TrEMBL record:
InterPro entries assigned to the protein according to its UniProt record, in alphabetical order: EmrB-like, MFS, MFS_dom, MFS_trans_sf
Keywords: Cell membrane, Membrane, Transmembrane, Transmembrane helix, Transport
Transmembrane segments: 12-33, 53-73, 80-101, 113-131, 138-157, 169-188, 200-219, 231-248, 268-292, 304-321, 333-350, 362-380, 464-483
One Gene Ontology CC term in the entry: plasma membrane
Gene Ontology MF terms: transmembrane transporter activity
Protein name (Swiss-Prot/TrEMBL): Multidrug resistance protein EmrY
Gene: emrY
Length: 507
């Protein structure tokens, strides 16, 4: 089930360029809808609990499909997978752009996700194979520019489009670009792959889908429905049981769909743990900041998007630089500096007020993104560097799967913390306010008091959630001190399938 890539005189830059353009479009789509959700709710007449499925559904499809990418990468050529991924993404974009009812929009969004789920592990695997360890940091830095820069630009672009056009223009804008990239891939990608004797374990795929899908659905729904909802804890329990069964089955198989033996490599196990913790903390900024900026401060979608633009630019500029620094100094010093910045900025985000200046928010958000740019790719690359080459597809698939799961857990945790804190604070403020009321207040005075209490309680809930991320980031910082520069582990009894050669050729 493992592959050996034929050594080339130089990396296939043409192939990588096409893959990166396709990946940029699919990653950009991940956050493009965030600021447009209020407009979609109004236009399609749906509630917040319904519209959030545009994000939850996307995450669910990714969580279900990404575990199977280790099999797909070994079974099919890069050309084959790229065309399928971009084809699915393009079809989904067209469907979503024509949507006049919510189910059709959700169908398009989930079809997009099917393409996106294949694209990220595919590109990461090609880069791991194409570059030697000593040059991999710089290469992965460029990949990081796409993986983190594209989603960061999404809110700014989305804010401008939604303020000037209908929300469907978000999809109409992406459609022609996706079609062009698909055509470029069709004519330029010419890599060939010899026949591989490997079959998909459909029962394992079913267990994986139920396992990861159940966990993602349960945690994603907890923030809205509450942890005591039977559908929430029921799907989490079913997902956990299915996932445990899936892991046991994979460990017993000679050619598993997703090889969990990669966790015996300590650098990889440490890197994926840190990445999961950082992903959980990262979602605080992505979810809580827009709520504070738009709902409490009344800042327009366009200005809210612009507020995140400097951070996106910093991340885009820093990613290749961070990659080169990784090649020179290793991952530990970068991770420690980056996570220290995340701890400090998370603390200051827990001190938000109603009168903080717009420029201060830009500075704080940008500094947080700067810290984040020094963590994610160096940590992930350091862990993947220790894996034998035949484990690359499994390592990249595991990375992306667990990031989806930790993202869902982080979202649910932070929304639940915010909601509970907001509710308790509102009760305390209401009790204090009623004690100080003299006489019988008018209906107008009560409404005004209620609005003030709601805003103050929501602000307290947001601040407390950011305060929780201080400790989450601090945990990752402690773990970062154990990072060591690694060398690639030697193969241990490589299976016969490793003898299969995959040829990557550049036309």
């Amino acid at each position: 089930m493992d592959q050996k890539i034929k050594k080339m005189d130089r990396p296939p830059y043409g192939l990588l360029t096409v893959l990166m353009i396709g990946a940029f479009i699919t990653f950009l789509n991940n956050t493009l809808l965030n600021i447009a959700l209020p407009s979609i709710m109004t236009d399609l007449k749906v509630e917040p609990s319904t519209v959030q499925w545009l994000a939850t559904g996307f995450m669910l499809v990714n969580g279900i499909l990404i575990p199977s990418t280790a099999f797909l990468i070994q079974k099919y050529s890069v050309r084959h997978l790229f065309l399928v991924a971009m084809g699915l993404f393009t079809i989904g974009t067209i469907i979503a752009g024509m949507a006049h009812v919510f189910p059709l929009l959700l169908t398009g969004r989930m079809t997009q996700a099917a393409g996106s789920a294949i694209m990220m592990p595919l590109l990461m695997n090609v880069m791991l194979v194409a570059f030697p360890i000593e040059k991999r940091g710089a290469a992965m830095g460029v990949f990081g520019l796409i993986m983190m820069g594209a989603p960061a630009i999404g809110p700014t672009l989305s804010g401008w489009i939604v303020e000037h056009y209908d929300w469907r223009m978000l999809f109409h804008f992406v459609t022609p670009i996706a079609i062009i990239v698909l055509l470029i891939g069709f004519f330029l990608l010419k890599d060939k792959k010899e026949k591989v004797d490997i079959k998909l374990d459909f029962f394992a795929l079913l267990l994986s889908s139920i396992g990861f899908g159940g966990l993602l659905y349960g945690f994603s729904s907890a923030g809205k429905q509450g942890w005591d909802d039977p559908m929430v804890y029921g799907t989490i329990i079913v997902g956990a049981i299915s996932l445990i069964t899936f892991i046991i089955r994979q460990l017993k198989q000679e050619k598993p769909m997703l090889n969990f033996k990669i966790f015996k490599y300590p650098a990889y196990a440490l890197s994926i743990t840190i990445s999961m913790v950082v992903t959980m903390a990262m979602f605080s900024g992505m979810i809580l900041t827009p709520i504070y900026v738009q709902s409490l401060r009344g800042i327009s979608p366009m200005d809210a998007g612009l507020m995140m633009l400097p951070g996106a630019i910093i991340m885009a500029l820093m990613s290749p630089i961070t990659g080169k620094l990784f090649d020179k100094y290793g991952g530990r010093v970068l991770a420690i500096i980056g996570l220290s910045i995340m701890v400090i900025t998370s603390y200051y985000f827990s001190k938000l007020t109603f009168d903080l200046s717009y420029n201060y928010l830009i500075f704080l958000y940008s500094l947080r993104m700067f810290g984040m740019s020094m963590v994610m790719m160096p940590v992930s690359t350091n862990g993947l560097n220790q894996l034998p080459k035949r484990f690359y597809p499994h390592g990249t698939a595991m990375n992306n799967t667990l990031q989806q799961v930790s993202g869902a857990i982080g979202t649910a945790l932070l929304i639940t913390v915010m909601s509970n804190r907001t509710e308790s604070t509102a009760k305390d403020l209401a009790a204090d306010a009623m004690k100080n009321v003299q006489g019988q207040p008018t209906a107008e005075a009560l409404a005004q008091m209620k609005q003030q209490i709601t805003m103050q309680a929501t602000l307290d809930g947001i601040n407390f959630s950011f305060y929780v991320t201080v400790f989450i980031s601090a945990l990752a910082l402690i773990l970062a001190f154990f990072i060591k520069r690694v060398t690639q582990a030697e193969e241990e009894n490589p299976p016969a399938a490793q003898k299969v050669t995959t040829k990557l050729a550049e036309n």
